[in-house]
Amino acid sequence: MTENSNAVTYAGAGVDVEAGDRAVELMKDAIKATHGTGVVGGVGGFAGLFNLTALKEYKKPYLATSTDGVGTKVAIAQKLDIHHTIGQDLVGMVVDDIVVTGAKPLFMTDYIATGKVVPERIADIVRGVAEGCSLAGTALVGGETAEHPGLLAEDEYDVAGAATGIVEADELLGPERVHEGDVLIAMASSGIHSNGYSLVRKVLSVAGWDYERHVEDFDRSIGEELLVPTRIYTADCLDLIEAFPVNGEDGQTGSGIRGFSHVTGGGLAANLARVLPQGTVGLVDRSTWEIPAIFKLIGDLGSVPQADLERTLNLGVGMIAVVDPSVADAAVERLNKRGLPSWILGTVEADNGEHKNNSDYVQGAKGVDGGAAVLLNQYK
């Protein structure tokens, strides 16, 4: 075959295979650090493998799976050229949806699409994923980096991930376990996490703030504050389940954990309502916590109505546990001893219609025709 100076090559089309290989070399050690005895093989296979032999002790195992991304938070990471935190956001968004069912996340995969593979940038992202997986006790068994020139700009990328977990069938958490009189426990968020960034970015744009703007209250730029990674609750939730078992000795729902609600898109009330049974309402007491400074700043800077903030952002509560009242105080104490600020947030009561005319009342959220939730009183 004769050489042609006008020949079109893959590299000429904008795809650098060698850069992809260099990125893999840079991230291999971080990925391997997440591997326990269940992972089969190393990095670079066509598929990740996980040995399920150790799971034979399960009588009737259910697999739980979840997939998600980080949303427009990546735009801030790209603008500031800070990429090592966004991976933890990805892990948190995925594994903490799985633990809501009572399942332990076993393994995860990730996907990065970018306009141009910059090995160091890709490695930073994946190191963040690996760090998040380590925090969750989850193996990172594989992933994919795809170069999409012409579709994405050279400095643009998006990330997505999926994870699989396992739970014993008779320990599966769900609305059917929740009773009237159960107690709601709030677990503090680390910040805005990974939801509502379209609102946040719009507020800053309208106000004329760039991400490098220094904010005295945070002692860093507003962009750096916005990039604080999502808190991962998996290990804390699994510890609560172990300490306060889901089932009693008779195999029925015991005096322990009833359920969890991961506060993501839609805000606190909408996500809480999803895990409550029909005929009940979660009464959330705003006076039990003070809204963290970053949320106040966004609200004040954009004159954002409180109702909009509550429907969009977590406002300081990233996960909620629903527990039997007999263990509520002990559960709060345990979480705080683990370094996770937590407090009694409210209770679950019969929905007798008293709160249905309250504008903060939410029912039928996220397509789930379950219970309801309402936020009462004023914030500290």
TrEMBL record:
Q: Which reaction does it catalyse?
A: 2-formamido-N(1)-(5-O-phospho-beta-D-ribosyl)acetamidine + ATP = 5-amino-1-(5-phospho-beta-D-ribosyl)imidazole + ADP + phosphate + H(+)
Compartments where found: Cytoplasm
| Pathway(s) served | Purine metabolism; IMP biosynthesis via de novo pathway; 5-amino-1-(5-phospho-D-ribosyl)imidazole from N(2)-formyl-N(1)-(5-phospho-D-ribosyl)glycinamide: step 2/2
Q: What's one GO BP annotation on this UniProt entry?
A: 'de novo' IMP biosynthetic process
Q: Which E.C. number(s) belong to this protein? A: 6.3.3.1
SUPFAM superfamilies assigned: PurM C-terminal domain-like (SSF56042), PurM N-terminal domain-like (SSF55326)
Its protein name is: Phosphoribosylformylglycinamidine cyclo-ligase
Gene name in the database record? purM
